[in-house]
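TA notes, week 10

Several of you asked for a full example with nothing omitted. So below is the full record: structure tokens for the whole chain, then the designed sequence directly under it. When grading your own attempts, check the secondary structure regions first.
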């Protein structure tokens, strides 16, 4: 362990003079990766396999050429099976190493970089805090307070949310809530349901306050799974329809989840778990949890407005047929409809008056072969089960489109 600490310290002292910012950036990453690989090399023979793999992965994320980390990845297989004695020694070594590596991570986070890499470099700051919460706590607290003072809500949010993931703190939790409200008015927030794995994008109304109830407008993205882009587009289209905006990261709207993994903020393991599972089950349960959270946390109205484009029509129709009492109105846009995915059909009286209007481009290339028969199936089911206000409007000249110029006015016309 003494050799490991000396290696990290020697590397850090080498930066004192004569290093360009770019060179210092690279050397810091190599120094941290080297230390992580050495710690992993100690852990692996002690059968701390999961811990060694994690260290090797962290090292390679900083320095993809680190040979020792690559070697450890190949050796550290299976579950950890260390003795009680080795576990105690591991805890001691990790704590001592953390005090040395945390300042290097924080130094790395302060290196000059392009604005597009702010998330990455603030992540280094959080990683430093993760390695030594007690020692790095005052530094990360000073950094987020400085960001708040400058009204740099994005950076304050990144640092606070990262710190809270590492270690819950009541003062940080209170500050995080306030910063989220500030940032959420101008840029999408990624949030997770409180008791479900579903994550979602949220944009708050302009001038949000808890003093009034706010409408909730949900957009369910299609097979392209461009969730962030979708809610950003919605925020630009809503005009004076000042509502809480939600785009859930759904599974039922696309085909192969792993093909779209770069579009999701989920861990790969979760996508793999649901790749062959009941995707609508995940979406329905998760979305209902999301709605409950948003209503509670942001004072949302009891009933929502919902639209879904293409594959997003699946969850939209699910809400129409299975939860009509939760909706003010629904406006599927060029939607898919697969009746076998539906859960229990509702018999609530709200179904009889719920306004549902499908907007369909008459130049949609999928219309004749796919969407027309699916619309007929949805309309037939609606008629049979007591939905009396379901219609479709063909949009002249429109292709496979979200039809915002029709959807938003339709919702505004239903607003009480």
């Amino acid at each position: 362990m003494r050799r490991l600490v000396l290696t990290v310290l020697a590397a850090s002292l080498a930066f004192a003079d004569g290093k360009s910012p770019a060179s210092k950036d690279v050397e810091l990453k190599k120094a941290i990766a080297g230390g992580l690989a050495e710690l992993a090399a100690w852990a692996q023979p002690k059968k701390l396999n999961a811990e060694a793999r994690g260290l090797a992965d962290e090292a390679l994320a900083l320095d993809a050429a680190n040979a020792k980390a690559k070697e450890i990845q190949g050796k550290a297989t299976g579950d950890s099976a260390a003795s009680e004695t080795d576990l105690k020694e591991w805890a001691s070594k990790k704590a001592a190493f953390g005090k040395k590596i945390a300042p290097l991570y924080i130094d790395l986070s302060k290196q000059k970089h392009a604005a597009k890499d702010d998330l990455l470099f603030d992540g280094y700051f959080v990683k430093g805090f993760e390695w030594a919460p007690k020692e790095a706590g005052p530094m990360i607290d000073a950094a987020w307070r400085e960001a708040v003072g400058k009204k740099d809500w994005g950076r304050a949010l990144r640092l606070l949310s990262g710190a809270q993931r590492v270690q819950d703190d009541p003062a940080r939790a209170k500050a995080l809530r306030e910063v989220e409200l500030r940032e959420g008015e101008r840029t999408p927030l990624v949030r997770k349901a409180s008791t479900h794995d579903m994550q979602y994008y949220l944009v708050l109304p302009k001038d949000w306050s808890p003093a009034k109830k706010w409408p909730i407008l949900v957009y369910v993205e299609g097979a392209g799974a461009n969730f962030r882009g979708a809610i950003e587009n919605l925020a630009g289209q809503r005009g004076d329809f000042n509502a809480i905006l939600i785009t859930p990261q759904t599974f039922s709207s696309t085909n192969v989840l792993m093909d779209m993994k770069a579009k999701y903020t989920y861990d790969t393991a979760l996508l793999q778990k649901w790749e062959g599972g009941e995707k609508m089950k995940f979406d329905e349960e998760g979305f209902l949890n999301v709605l409950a959270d948003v209503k509670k946390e942001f004072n949302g109205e009891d009933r929502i407005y919902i639209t879904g484009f293409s594959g997003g029509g699946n969850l939209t129709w699910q809400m129409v047929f299975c939860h009509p009492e939760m909706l003010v109105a629904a406006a599927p846009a060029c939607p898919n409809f697969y009746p076998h995915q539906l859960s229990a059909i509702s018999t609530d009286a709200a179904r009889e008056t719920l306004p549902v209007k499908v907007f369909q481009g008459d130049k949609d290339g999928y219309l004749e072969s796919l969407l027309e028969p699916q619309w007929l199936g949805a309309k037939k089911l609606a008629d049979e089960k007591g939905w009396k206000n379901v219609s479709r409007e063909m949009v002249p000249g429109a292709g496979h489109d979200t039809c915002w110029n029709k959807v938003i006015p339709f919702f505004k016309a239903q607003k009480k």
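The chain is about 55% helix and 10% strand. Use that as a sanity check on your answer.
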